[in-house]
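hiii, so i know i said id send this last week but things got crazy w the move. better late than never?? heres the sequnce for the chain we talked about at the cafe, plus the structure i predicted for it. fair warning i was half asleep when i ran it
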Amino acid sequence: MISIFNQNIQKIECVNSSGSLKINLELIIDFNPNRESEN
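okay and structure toks below
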């Protein structure tokens, strides 16, 4: 499993299962200047 985190990408998971590649991509983009990042 490969997990990559940054300010615009919450989670990228690449899982190789039984020779098949499953990709789970979740994007959370928040450009609200009045909110501080919790992470």
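btw The mean pLDDT is 56. thought thatd interest u
miss u guys!!
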